[in-house]
Amino acid sequence: MHYITDFYFVARRFCQVLYFCAMKNRISFFVVALSLTALFAFDKMVFQSPEQLGERLFFDPILSLDSTISCSSCHIPQFAFSDTAFFSRGVGGRTGRRNSPSITNMTARAHFFYDGRAATLEEQVLMPIQDTLEMRANAALVTARLRQHAYYGPAFIQLFGKEADMAALAQTLAAFVRTLETGNTPFDRWMQGKSGGMDAAAVRGRDVFMNKGKCFDCHFSPDFTGDEFRNVGLYTGRRNLQDRGRFDVTGDSTDLGKFKVPGLRNVAVTAPYMHNGMFKTLEEVIEFYDTPNQVVPGGINRDTLLNEPLRLSPEEKSDLKIFLEALTDDRFIR
Ligand code: HEC
Ligand code: HEC
Fold first, then answer.
1. I need a labelling partner for 66 at 20 to 30 A (CA). Which of 58, 154, 191, 330 fits?
2. Same domain, residue pair 244 and 192
3. CA of 75 to the centre of ligand 1 (A)
4. CB of 112 closer than 6 A to ligand 1?
5. What is the DSSP letter of 17?
6. Domains of the chain: total
7. Which ligand is in closest contact with the Cα of 121?
8. Which residue is closest in CA terms to ligand 1's atom 9?
9. Domain range spanning residue 10?
10. Residue 261 belongs to a domain with what CATH number?
């Protein structure tokens, strides 16, 4: 994809120069016509869809204040579009407030961000651009840059019939994010009765997930989230556990410490875990769910599902982890 647009960019420039020289030196009408036709053809060829343009912009730091940070700085493709840092760094090295989640399988989501402060992807994708801890840019700066850009300027006009603006930008980025659906996993093959599915340990782990572990009570649906806000007890009001989650959006005290239940597809490659990245491995996450009160004492408003220790055996813990690993799309297996 990038090769195509890079080639396009060079070819387009070449045609522009050719056209310019032809005009200036009054070279034959034929050369002028040829370069114009080529220009037109290239335009038609490459910008066939908003998601193609969105992909290009996702990887381009042009959307940040000092052109150093792109969406892909924090949503790194090989880690299922998440980050390996506890808190990602934005413009000027500032650290954010939360761990960067995977943004695969966003199409069916009902809310965005851990606290659900965005209702649509179009709304969501513009927020990091203007977030002072992330890309720190603003609408005026970004639209001016896009309009003046030799490559993006014409692309927006061609796709949207008008000059680049924030609404069109949101459409391109959201369209690209929607292409990041994943479903080629051992779990899906097992569900469909195909070969290359889950092994016996993963199948046992699925049983722990559905029953004894109670994971499915919150992580249900094809993407393993009910898109609800739940509280697993990671808000204590003390030290590094002061993020109030959903409460900051609704002001409703029953929302204190609730976070959006994340989907679990590709979770094996998106460490560290939780809104604050406090668990480095899936083993640590499983230990936490096994004895929540021991690992994080004093969680305020914690869901009653987590009242009792799960008392999982070492085998059950290991099987559960193997099941979670079976949710990894083939493209992220290294
Ligand atoms: C500096 C790091 C950083 C950059 C740059 C960044 N993000 Fe994010 N992204 C995050 C963090 C951290 C969160 C979670 C924040 C929260 O929940 O409050 C997030 C959340 C998201 C979500 C919501 C995921 C969910 O499960 O609700 C999407 C979608 C997303 N980002 C897309 C983008 C796009 C598109 C861009 C570029 C325009 C971008 N991000 C730039 C760090 C970043
Ligand atoms: C009461 C609902 C609930 C139950 C039960 C539950 N979870 Fe969660 N899970 C959540 C919420 C909410 C989060 C996000 C919490 C946060 O970030 O602070 C989460 C986060 C996670 C994460 C981290 C994902 C990431 O990308 O950071 C994993 C892994 C996970 N859960 C696995 C499990 C497993 C395995 C079980 C069963 C042993 C389980 N969950 C049971 C609600 C639940």
1. 154
2. yes
3. 7
4. yes
5. H
6. 3
7. 1
8. 100
9. 1-46
10. 1.10.760.10
